[in-house]
Each structure stands twice: as C-alpha cells, then as structure tokens.
Amino acid sequence: MKSFLTVAQKPLPFKALLIMKFTLLLLIAGLHVSAGGFGQEKLRLNFRKAEIASVLQAIEKQSNFRFLYNNQLNSIRQKVSLDLKDASIRQALDQLFSGTLLTYQFMDNKLIVVKEDHLKPPARDITGKVTDDSGAPLSGVSVNVKGSNRGTATNEKGQFTISADDADVLSFSYVGYEPQEVTVGNKTTVNIALVSVAKSLENIVVIGYGQVRKRDLTGSVLSVKSDDIRKTPAVNALESLQGKLAGADIMRTSGSASSGVSITIRGNRSLRADNGPLIIVDGVQYNSIQDISANDIQSLEVLKDASSTAIYGSRGANGVVIVTTKRGSSGKPRINASSYYGISEVAGYPRMMNASEYMNWRREANRKIAIAGINPNGNWSSNANDNLLFNNIEQTNINNGVDVDYSDLFLRQGNQQEHHVGVSAGNDQTKGYLSLGYYGENGILKLDELKRYTARLGLDQQIGKFAKAGMQFQFTYYDIDQRTNPMDEASKISPFSLPRDSAGNVNLSPNNEAARWNPLIDEQPGIAENNTITQRTFAVAYVEVNPLKGLSLRSNLGMTFANATVGQFFDRNSLLQRGTNALGSYSSGKGRNINWENIITYNKQVNQHNLTLTGVTTFLQNNYEEATAQGNRQILPSQLYYGLTNALDGISIRTGYTKENLVSFAGRANYSFAGKYLASFSIRTDGSSKLGEGNKWSVFPAAALAWRISDEDFLKTSNSISDLKLRVSYGITGSDAITPYRTQSTLTRIPNAFGENPAPGFTFSDTIGNASLQWEKTRAFNAGVDIGLWNNRVTATVDFYRTRTTDLLIDRLLPPTSGVSRTFQNVGATLNTGLDIGVNVAVIRKTDVNFNVGATFYTNKEKITELLNGVDDVANEWFIGHPVRVSYDYRKIGIWQLADSTEAKANKQLPGDIRVFDRDGSKSITTNDREVVGQLVPKWNASLNLDFRYRQWDLNVFLFARYGQTIEYAYNQRTHMPGRENGAVQNYWTLENPSNDFPKPRTSSSFAALLYSSTLQYVDGSFLKIRTITLGYTLPKSFTSRFGVSGLRLYATGRNLFTFSKVDDYDVERGGSLINPMTKLVVWGVSINL
Amino acid sequence: MILFAAVLTGAASCKKQLTEYNPAGVTADVVFNTPAGYEAGVSAAYSYNRWLWGKEAGYHLLEAGSDLWMSGVDDPNTELTQYTSGMNGSNAVIAAIWSRLYSAVNLCNALIPRAAKSGLPPATQAIREGELRMLRAWYYFTIVQTWGGVHFTLDETTGIISTANKTPEEKFYAQIIDDLRHAVAVLPNTTPDNGRATKPAAEAFLSKVFLIRGEYDSCYKYADKVINGYDFKLQTNYADIWNMSNQTGKEIIWAVNYTTNLTMNDFTGPAGAIVYPGGHPRGANNGHLMFLQKYDVRTGMERSIAYGRPFSRWMPSLYLLDLFDESIDSRYDATFQGLWIANKAGNSTYKRNLTTGVEATFTISFGDTAHFLSKHEMDSAWRNTRKYETFERRDMYNANGTPKNNANFLSLKKFLDPTRPSVAEQQSARDAFIFRLSDIMLTAAEAKHRLNDNGAAAELINKVRRRAALPGHVADMEIEASDVNIDFILDERARELAGEQWRWIDLKRTGKLEERVKAYNPQAKGNIAPYHKVRPIPQIQLDAVTNKEEFKQNEGYL
Predict the structure, then answer these.
(1) CA-to-CA distance for A118 and A74, rounded, in angstroms?
(2) Which of A326, B9, B46, B147 has a 20 to 30 A CA-CA distance from A580?
(3) A696 and chain B: CB distance < 8 Å anywhere?
(4) A258 or A1059: which carries more pLDDT confidence?
(5) Higher pLDDT, A758 or B22
(6) β-pair type (A320-325, A278-281)
(7) Is any Cβ of chain B less than 8 angstroms from the Cβ of A1089?
(8) Does A925 touch chain B if contact means CB atoms closer than 8 Å?
(9) B84 vs A contacts (CB less than 8 Å)
C-alpha cells in the first residue's frame, strides 16, 4: 500500500496524516463504518461515455465527499454512461461501479475509499420494495450487501435495485427502525417491512443485569410497556397493572390518599418475613416505586421464575420487578405533556343502626327474659324502663326525634389530579430526558391529603469511542396529611346524640358518654394535625467501557437519600387525646441506601453459536437513623409541634439506628445455537449481615433451557404457527427479609421511679434473639410455553411452576412462660404450585378498526408442608396442608334456639348465643373444635382486557376477578353485644325473631365479644369488578399538526365503578376493614405530544 | 481494572461489612454487668407490678369475682366479674397478665445470678439480690394463686424454649418461702426509695404466705414482727389513709409507687406516640376511675376533677353495703360516696313524677344537693319533697339483690384523686398499697383464730375496729372473743380492705370463694363453680407449647 494518490482538486492539508489513519483503519479487521445519514445528498449526474474518475470528480464538486483511490487502476479509467436525478451518493456509486471490479467504502470525514476487488463475484440485479409495518413505502432506507461495500438506498416509492449474488445477505437500515437482514438465495425480488424501534421495543425484555430479545428469553418474565401502565391513572404505577400480570397479585391497601399497594408474586412463600418482590429501578434497588410517575416509565418487567431471579440471589425469592425509566433520544426535542383530573367517592360503606334500630338493640340487651335463664336479671321489661337504659340527654334527644348517621358526616367527594411534562432531546453524543410532575389527591375524608412533586433528569454521554457514562436523577417531595381515623368512632356513637350544639359548635362528648368522643372534633381548626414531609433523592450514575468487541465493563452506583419529618399535634380535645393532654411530636428519619454494582459482560458469536457471559459484584447497604421528640401540654397550642420546648410536661426523646449490608458475587452464561436452542446458567453467592455467625453466606444456582420450535424447518413454513417456544427452568433463590439485629437479644427501657426519683428500668424485649438464623431458600421449577398463531394474531403464554421454600424465616410466637413472646427462627417449608396464563387475541386488525382482547388467569395453591416437630402450629395459625394466611376458628352453624336450651346450657351457653360446630363430636365445645375456616389468599385471579379502536376513538374495558378468599369483615364485628355502642344492622335473635344469623345482645357479655363472636366475621371475599372503562379520542394529525402538535388525545376513565360480590355496600378488595374504605373514581385527561 | 479492584477490595472488606453494627440497641450481657445497668434491671423488675396494682386487670383478677362486687354498666369483662362463659383461655385480660408475670420472673432469674458481676458495692449487691428474691417470690405467688401449679423455673431464658412444665404448688411455695427468708435476712428495715422492698415488707409477705400454707405459728411470728418490731402505726382516722398526702404514711408497709411526674409512670403513650412501647395503655394508678357511678349525666352535675371520671366498672353488692353499721363505723362514709353537690354553673331544671302521679318540675342551682343515693329504703312522702334526685335501695337493686340500675350506685371513693391535672386524666399518682398495717393485724388475728386463741384474735381485730369507730362509738365497735370466727374475719376484712385487691385471695385462702359468691353475689351465683378457684391458662400458651399432652388447660375450663 504505497502508491495512493488523490486526484482531489482541493488541496488536502493533512495528506500524510490521512494516509496513516487510513492504513491504521485497514489494519483493524472487520471495522465497519456507518453509512447512516449518507442518503440525503441529492446528486444530479448526466454523463455519456465518461471516465469513472471524471464522474467521481463531478461528485466531489456537487458534494462534500472526497475520494481516495489508486490512479493507476484500470477500472478507474473505464468509461460509463449514466443519467441520475436526485440520487443519493450510494445510488450513484452503485450504478457507477456496477459491472466493474470497483468497490467503495465510506470512511470518516466524508472520505470514500475506492479500490478494485478482483474477487467480486458476478452479480445480478435484485429489486424490491421497503415498507413500514403498515405497508407505507419508506424512502431513503439503506440497503447494503453485508460484508461488501455495495449499497444503495430506496427511492421515494420505497424501491431499490442492487446487484448481489445468491450467497449475499442484504441488510436494511433506517433511522427509527430496527435493522433487518435477508439472505438473497434464488430470489430476484426482496420485499420487506421494517419494524419501528418503538414497536420493536416491545420485543426487548429487560432481565437482571442485561436485556434480551423476547424470542431469546429462557425464563418466565412479564413485560409491560409505558402505554399499558398509563392506561389506568393512579399514583402508583403498580396499581395501574392490577390484574394485568398473570402471577402477580396486586392490591391497593386502603382507600386513603396515602395508602400503599401490595404486590405478591406467585403466592406467599414466607410465613412471616416480607413477601414483597425486589424492585429494581434503572439497575438499582429502589423500593419506593410510588415515587416514579407512570409517565416516566419506559417499561416494567416482572421476573417470576427462579432462573430469571436467581441472578439477584438473596433478593430474588419473591420475584423481581424491573422498572426502566425513559431516557433521552437523539433528534429534535420531543415533548410529552399529560394531565388529568378526577373525582372520587366511597365505593360503598355499610350503614350503622339508626335511632330506632339502636334503641331496640339496647332494649333487647337489657330485656328481662325469665325463660330458660336467658336473662332473668334484665332490667328492661317495657318502655317504662327506658329511664334505666337511657340517660336524661338521650331521652330528650329520642323524644326530639334525633337520628344522626355519623358516617355520613364524614364521607365526601375527593379528587385526584396529575400533571406531567417530559422532554427528551439529544444528539449522537449526548442524550437527555427531563420531566416534572405533580400529583395531588384529596381523600374522601377531610384532612386526608397527598401531594407529590417529582423532578427527573436522565443523561447519557458518549465518551470517545469506547466509553459512555450517564446518570439518572430523581427528586421526589411528598406532603401528606393524615387524620385519626374517625370511622371507627362514628360507627359506635349513638345515633340519637347531637354532633353539634344549637350554636353549631361540635359537642365534645355527645350524650356525655365517657367512652365516646365526637369524631367531628378533629375537623375543627387547630385541633389535630398529622403532617409528613418526605423528600427522596434517587441518583444512579454509571460508567460503561467497551474496550473490545463484545466486551463491556460497567460500574453502577445507585444512591437513595430519604428524609422524612413527621409533625403531629393533637389538642387535648382531639379524637386521639380525648380530653387528657395536648400532645405534640416531631420526628425526623434519615435513610441512606447505597447500591454499588460492577458488571462485566462478554458476548461472542461464532458461526451459529452465541455466548454471553456476565459477572457481577454487588455491595448493598441500608442505613436508617431517626430522632423523635415529643411533649405534652403546650403553653401555646398554636405552636403545634414546633414549640416542643414549651411543652409543660412529658418531654421525651428517642433516637434509633439500623444498618444492614449485603455483599454478593454472581456469574451467568447465556448460550444460544442458531437462535433455536437457548440455555442459561447462573450462580450467585450472597453474604448478609443480618444472619447468624457462620450462616451469613449462601450460594444460589439456576439453569434454564428453551427451544424455539417455530424456528425449526418443519414449522418454518407453517401458516398457522408463527411462534412456538418451550421453556424449562430450575433454580434456588434465598431470602433474608427480616429486620436487622434479629440475632441479638436486646433490652427495652421502661420508666419507673422510687418516690419521686426517676429510676428508669431495662428489661428484656418481647423478642428474643436467635444467633443461628440462616438463609431461607426457595427451589423453583418453571415450565412454560409461548405460542403465536396466525401471524401472531393469537398469542399465549402459559407457565406452570412449583416452588418449594425451606428454612422459612419465621417471626414465631413462643409460649409466654419463657418470659419472651416471640423470636425469629428458620422453621418448616411451604410449597406453591400454580399456573399463569396470558392470552391475547387481535380480533380485528385493520387500519381503521382494531379490536384486541387480552385475558389473564392465574391460580396458585399455597400450602405449608413442614413445620417444627412436624405438627401444626396453632399459636401462629400455621397448619400443614393449608395456605400460610388462614383464618382458624370455630365454625358457626347457627344460633342456639329455645328448643336447644339444655344442650346450650351444657356448653355454658344460652338460647340466642352463637352455636358452633362440634367438630370432634365430643358433645361439648372445646378448643379442639377449631378448624381452618377460610384462606385469606384467593384461589384464582382472572382479568379480561378489551381494547377497541375505531379511527380516532379508543375504548378500553378492563375486568378483574378474585375468587376464593375469605375476608374478616369488620362490619360484622362492629357489634357491641352488651348494647352500649351502636354498630352493624343485623338480623339478630330475639324471642320473637329466632334468627340463625346473629346472636342476641346481652348486657352480661363482655365488651370485646360474646363467646365465639369472631365466627361472625368470616365472609366470602370473592369479587368481580369492572376495574376501568376508558374512552379516548385522538385528534386527527392533519388537524393538530397545524399547531405543531404531533398527537393529542382526550380521554375519560372510570375506575372501580362496579363491583360484584356477596357483600353489600362494601368493596371487598379492602379486605374487611371499615377504615379508609375503597374509592371509585372518574377521571378526565389529556395527553399531548409535541 | 475498576472491576478487578472492586472484587479485591470487596472480598477483603466482606467480613467487616457483614458484622452487625447496632449502636442504638443494648443487650443484657453489656448492660447488666455494669452498676448502673444492674440498678436499671432491678428497677424494671419492680415495674411489672404496675400491670396489676392500681390497674383494671388487677381489680378484675384480685377484687371482682368475689362476694363484694357486681358489674357496673361499663364493665368490659363481665366474664371475670360474673364467671360467665367468656372466662376461658381466650380471655385477653388473663393472657396479658400471664405474659407479664412470666417476663418479670425471667428478669429476676436473669438478674439474681448476675449480682456478683454487677460491679455494685457488696452491701448494695446483697440488698438488690434480696429485693429481686422478694420480687420473684411475689410474682410466683401471684402466679400460683391465680393459676395453681403451672410453669416454674429458676433459669434465665437464653434461647428458644417451646415447652412448659406443670410444677406442684408445693414447689412454688417452697421457693417463695426460701426466697423470702433470704430477703428478710438481707433487706434493710427502711428505705429512702419509696416502693422498694424492705425487711418488714418481706416479713408481711411471709406472714401472708404462711397463713395460706396453714403454718399459723410462723404466720403470727412474722406478722407480729411487722406489727411490733418497727415504727408502723395505724392512721388516726381511717379516712386519712386515702388522703393523697398520706401515701407514704406510717401505716403503709409496701406499695407500688406511682409518681406525680407522669413521665416516670408506665404509660405507653397515645397511639402513634413513642414513649414506652412496652408500657401500659393507661399508665399509673387507674383505681379512681373504676368504681364511680354515672353522676355526670344527672341534673346539675358535670364531670369534675373532684368527683372523678366515672368508668362505672363495678358496683358494690348489697352484701358489702350492709356489712357496715354506718352509725358507729366511720369506714362506710370513708369508703362510699352517696351524695353529690351540683357543680354545674347556673340553674338546671328537670321533671319527675312524684309518687302521687303528679309531674313536678324542679330547679337545682350550683351548690345545691343534686343527687343522693342511699342503701336504705326511703319514705316516698319524704322523697316527694326533695328537689334533688334520689335513688334508694329498691331503685338500684332488685329484690334478689341483682342490679336494677347499674349506672347509678354508691361509689367506692377510696381511690379518688383530686390532684389529677385534668378531668380526663387517667393517670393518678396514688400509690397502690400492697401491704397495710391493718391488713397484717387482721392476718395475725386470723392466725390466732386458727390457733384457737380467739382472745388474742379479738384484741387484734379490736385494734382495727377502734380506729374505725366514729367519735363516741369506740366501745360499740369492740368485739368479744366469742364473736370471732372465720366469717367474721372475712367480713371485717371486707369492711377494712374493700377494693384493695386482696378479696379474691382471701376467699380462696379460706375456701369460701364458691360459698360466698353463691350467697352474696346474686349476679354471679348461677355461674361460679369449684374449678373457678384457679383461672384458665391462656390459650396462646396452650397453642404455643410443643408438649401439649403434658401442659394442658386447668381442669374445668374447656
């Protein structure tokens, strides 16, 4: 390589340098130079029998390209004729060099190297058309013969012509679309549809420490993209996904503005330790997923089987949720803005007794009934005895017809709103994403409010050729107001009491009942305040180096700094303090989470073999510090919790500290042959500071195999089966999900004094330490199949799993005779078997009309298989063969009737009392008659998602069902048997109404309960609900583009509007509690893309 | 390179990183081996008494369910007062006390062998160990009285123990007596620290234990030491015992100390507060709340600090009221309140039907008599002339003695605390007296009676009765040796000690629990059975033990 000359007319100042550089480039084998962006030049060439060299000179004049070639080549002197208009450089060169030995190669600085290739095979012309997935032609698509310099671009009709031979592979690339390759074979025409990047992202699945194409997936992973997450407006992205992920049981914990969302993946394995999944945001553990606006989420993956989660080792046993947030992209800035506003109200709240019902209830409790010893000492026989039951105030109110529904005084309309704007911009070197968001919710109770402000910034910077670095930064600010729950008090207070006096002031204690306090009092200004300000900063920084092809070294540092201050003030007359002392308290907590990971990845493709090796080191530290101060009887209540020094007594402080560390090393190998046979092996070792000495480390291996049958020759030509893959996996994961210091027996402080001299005491805490705590281990087998039929018009994923968990970490109750009441211990085993099915059917797939039906079905059978000493643990309510969370009690079979009074008496009961089942047939009711009366987890979940689009209109209906779980319904327990408090409206037993539903009230029963009254609370909590209905309208692009808007959609969503269950006036999703009942919501929103 | 370095440094620091760092927590081995820490441990051992003494659970277990009390309108645990079917292993009151008492025993068991390592001066060491022995005996005494021969151990729990034993009552008492003899030998005669155990306290306790064991000579010996060996004297007036300024009076031998500075009490703090998560939900002495009638809803009345906050848990049985001859015995008026003066500003009017059938309207002004209750029957003509509200015997009780009106009754006022800072304040600084001199005198009298020396018994009883006499009625109060029998002694104890948390144990000791409840407590008489002389073992205990065949429920409880 010595005699290169340039014929360029422009002087080339750095000739020597250029030659050196070129030489160097040639030395690096296989280097590809991107041709992207070269299609824009519009050349006009009209030559008749001109030398190729002179044509090249003409091109240099018309453009910025320069050519580098050996002047002495014969080929360069060949004469050609051509006539081109608006041609790209590639089109021009392809035509110019066709039929010659010349080839070209694009270099940096718009330099094109031209040389002779004597091996250039005889080629023929291949023609074709490139379209997008909707069939529209794409112009300017680069078409190259792989491994050669030959290339061209499509014209405005999407057509191209290129010379190639049978063995050549054509590659098609275009900005914004996924590249594709086609082997020429004996074809002369190649028509191809490119898939846009946005669409194809749907085929990329993020897995632990990497990502794979969906087709290469070996594990059981669910993937949801941003559009699906945004469909159901909610403050927490997980809530939006309720019912949509087969295998994940997602529930909102209450109807309060600041309520959380619980997620359980494939059942409860642990008996007491946390069963929530690990949440990874942008590669870093971040459990506060509620901070992240659904608008900022690019995709969300749920890893379900052990082979997918084992790479997370100790943290993966309960499944892993991987959240990938939006990042910047190159090109012109893209702005997305969205807003919604909605109104909420209670989704059902059962009423308490009204005045006459409550009067009768109370009379019945006191009624003198001499028959069968029912209540011979009762002091009410007729209305004449009312003065013994009702005091003067009550009698006056009764005479005045006072009848107040207290719960009605509280429940109001609430509202929710979210406003969010995101901007993404950048160039090839630097990409950024910035978003700002506000979410506000006013609950259905006054003083129940939440405001969330978020700011998010993501940056990715290319550093030279081999490195890039970037960060994700999020700041979240919460302002939350909570109130002392008034509903409990409202359900007890007498309906014939006056909430306000004649002047409109709140009566502190209506009816002057010492035990009852007016729950309205907290709504008076300055009486009760409970405010939480939380600020969380989440920063992830990474550096990635790619020194060699296929090798990547990445270091990730994630940090979360959380700061929460809780200020509380309760006046002496507040619902909480009930006339004692005012209480102010101020607490401040500081959390720090550090997650440092180093990941090495090496990918090598040899022929059909593809191998990816991954190595990971992890260091994880959680650290929390807090300080709380409080005081009673502030001199100036108006100082709330800020003037604690001015509290007259009860000034006290507390500080706390916890820290936990986790150190891990992991490795994984992913292998695929011809994309058909896939295998994955991983191993991880974890060390946890929370476990006992000598038990801190454990090893977690996993393996998975998959076979893409649809790629086999015998199915390749099938018209019906477009996709078929079988997967099996097995792996071990672990859990150390207990709070720190459980290996230590600590002391607690208790105040004491001798005389008036303080003598604070230290005694053992109720929980005793267990120095031999070790890892809880889960062995999971998963078998799955992915099917696509009729060009993926129907797709389905079915997974079967069997998960066995041993050495369960249990917070176990101990006999109190040991002086302590609980400990953490590794005990027993559980088995979860289940089936997850997801089906999607594109019923109509046309340009104007689209109808898509999606359904999921998920069933999990959870049972305990082993316990300590092989026997049921009654104290902890764990029973071999039953699920982890069950109700264990007597079974109510009715009410003792008069005819049964002898039998009742043998059980120390009376007619009108609850009759329970004599399970062991001993003729008397003993504790042996208790049994498992219901499971608190559903037997199955199912959902149906209907998506309908007609031109600009879209309609989505989402139904969700849970079946087979028992709830402990607080309403049925809201019954004061001695008749001193108001409560539920029930069909109770009286002499005249020998009901079998509810027992007779009686003054001689305990306030807490009549014997067996807990049996009244178990009700079937199965439900079907229309979770969301959304109607949207997207303005025509032709209209919006006039205002520079590329998309504008208006929508209305109704959430939780209809629920069908066996319980009236109550949304059973709440799980039985009457506190903060669930809400229904109607939302109007707009989203704009610029 | 970075990665390599990371792996190396990571591996090197692994061991260090995995060692737990817990600066906010404290462990027994660190704390109890220091002088201050050991003192704090001893102090905590005392604090467990605050779960029973002056607390609702304590009144339920030690006072109600006797011949003296019936359920008031707001008795939340009627099963404990009336022995109804809710008296079973699931009872939350019994379960809570069971756990606390065994926690207390475990703390004593942990501290006693550590005394030598405490670093305290040897003299203090011996005293503290004596106190702990006294406390262990005291907690085991409460356990064995309440449940009979249940779990017993002298070892600290250091690991997971999931079994329990059933130990005969004899072994409990042998250990109690052994611990108390040790305590008597080392404890000082007095202490500047009100609430700490002293030698006379241990002796008083021993006399009670020997009385239960039927060792009457020993009982008398120790009771006599307490009565004559120290400076204890009866208060001149019975009513003065209950004056808030006489809490450390010369009559008090041992008490559970509560303080006016409420932060030193055991209140767990309101919901969400941080003070003492292991504390009690009400804190300090709650006796003032328990026995009051609902005076505050009567005409002319409102709730006040002086009249107290009426929780209306228990009303006296007619038997208890009739035990007193208030014409000669000052203790009736010192024990019960039947008169309320209008404390509501201005005039209040109310209507009532006179016995003539005429509806009359009355006005009660601030300072007028508002409300008068009497255990006697009232003349209706006289009542018709009263402008205030009156409740007589027949208004409050049915003919068979069961409550007719359980909201309005004669109220035990011994524990009222007018020094509380607010009407609603549940915490009273009143000490809960465990041993009072007159109690020990009656204990000595009972021993003498059992030893067939009724003369000496009568003299001891007369000491107590003379002090109780109204002026000019000392002679009327005196009794003869021939008057002395066990029922008389129990009656006298009721008059002297009503409400003071000894009644249930007194009835049990004398074998009269079932007999007297049947005779004098018409509300509970249909329910009580012989097996009620011990309480049910909590179901949480039975469910949690792994040796279920050995550790079973007390007989009679299902």
Answers:
(1) 12
(2) B46
(3) yes
(4) A1059
(5) A758
(6) parallel
(7) no
(8) yes
(9) 908, 1004-1005
pLDDT tens for each residue of B85-105: 889 998 999 999 999 999 999
Nearest by CB to A762, from B31, B294, B523: name it.
Answer: B31
Q: Tell me if the pTM is above 0.90.
A: no
**Contact yes or no for B20 and A580 at CB 8 A:** no
- Residue in A580, A817, A1008 closest to B425 by CB: A580
Burial class (CB in 10 A: 0-12, 13-18, 19+), A672: buried
Q: How many helices (H) and strands (E) does chain A have?
A: 15, 56
* Chain B interface mutation, best of A388, A530, A641, A763, highest count of B Cβ atoms under 10 Å: A763
Chain A interface test: which of B33, B38, B43, B419 (most A C-beta within 10 Å): B43
| A46 has a pLDDT exceeding 90 | no
Contact map slice: A 459-478 vs B, CB within 8 A: none
- What SS3 state is found at B28? helix
Query: A423-467, pLDDT tens digit by residue?
Result: 988 887 888 999 999 999 998 888 899 999 999 999 999 898 889
Contact between B310 and B412 (Cβ < 8 Å): no
Pairwise CB contact (< 8 Å): B266 & A821: no
Contact call for residues A191 and A180 (beta carbons, < 8 A): no
Say if strands B339-341 and B369-373 run parallel, antiparallel, or are unpaired: antiparallel
Is beta strand A776-789 parallel, antiparallel or unpaired with respect to A583-606?
unpaired
Residues in chain A with CB shorter than 8 Å from the CB of B402 are 377
- For A512, the closest of B6, B85, B296 (CB atoms) is B296
Report whether A444 contacts A344 (CB < 8 A).
yes
Three-state SS for A944-998 is EEEEEEECCEEEEEEEEEEECCEEECHHHHCCCCCCCCCCECCCECCCCCCCCCE
**pLDDT for position A199:** 60
Torsion from C-alpha of B399, B402, B406, B408, nearest 10 degrees: 40
- Residue A168 tokens read as 């050549």
> What's the 3-state SS for A176-191?
CECCEEEECCCCCEEE
Average pLDDT score, chain B: 92
pLDDT digits (tens, 9 = 90+) for B100-146: 999 999 999 999 999 999 999 999 999 999 999 999 999 999 999 99
CA separation for the pair B45, B132 (Å, rounded): 7
Contacts of A76 (CB under 8 A, 6+ apart): A51, A52, A53, A69, A70, A102, A114
Q: How far is CA A561 from CA A325, A469, A535, A587, in A?
A: 19, 22, 8, 17
Global ipTM: 0.91
pLDDT for position A271:
56
Query: Could you give the angle at which helices B437-450 and B216-228 cross, rounded to 10 degrees?
Result: 150
Residue contact A696–B160, C-beta within 8 A: no
Chain B residue numbers with beta carbons less than 8 Å from the beta carbon of A1008 are: 76-77, 92
Q: Which residue has the tokens 């059973």?
A: A1068
Residue pair B28/B253 in contact (Cβ under 8 Å)? The answer is no
Closest partner residue to B543 among A659, A875, A908, by Cβ?
A875
Region of A1028 please: left (phi>0), alpha (psi -120 to 50) or beta.
beta
Residue B157 has pLDDT above 70, yes or no: yes
Q: Per-residue pLDDT averaged across B254-273, rounded?
A: 81
**Confidence band of B11 (pLDDT split at 50, 70, 90):** low
Which two three-digit tokens encode residue A1087? 């989203």
Per this entry, what is the length of chain B? 558
Q: Of A874, A771, A767, which is closest to residue A823 (Cα–Cα)?
A: A767
Q: What span, in angstroms and rounded, lies between the C-alpha atoms of B442 and B500?
A: 14
Cβ neighbours of A651 in B, within 8 Å: 263
Question: How many residues would you count in chain A?
Answer: 1090
Q: Report the pLDDT averaged over residues A263-267.
A: 74
